[in-house]
Amino acid sequence: MEDEVAARAIKLVNFVSEEQLDLSRKTRGERVEDGTAQRDRPLYEILRENKEKKDAEFNERFKHN
Questions:
Q1: What pLDDT does residue 43 have?
Q2: Is 4:11 a contact under the CB 8 Å cutoff?
Q3: Cα separation of 25 and 18, whole Å?
């Protein structure tokens, strides 16, 4: 029984090799805090753009009726 629990715990851990870390650092930068990594757009900005697009489509539908 303890072996089953240990096996499940090991499967939950996602190990990353040093090569994978180096590759990700090359593609996105070292760290966000020191300014070397590229920041993704803020969630607020993405949601605002999606809402504006949805509102524009909604207004277009009722504009033609």
A1: 86
A2: no
A3: 11
Total domains present in the chain: 1
Give the 3-state secondary structure of 2-47.
HHHHHHHHHHHCCCCCHHHHHHHHHHHCCCCCCCCCCCCCCHHHHH
What's this model's pTM, rounded to 2 decimal places?
Answer: 0.38
Distances (CA, A) of 22 to 7, 13, 31, 35, 37: 29, 20, 12, 17, 13
Range of the domain at 30: 2-63
Read off the pLDDT of each residue in 43-50 and give the average, rounded to a whole number. Answer: 91
Q: What is the mean pLDDT of residues 38-44?
A: 76
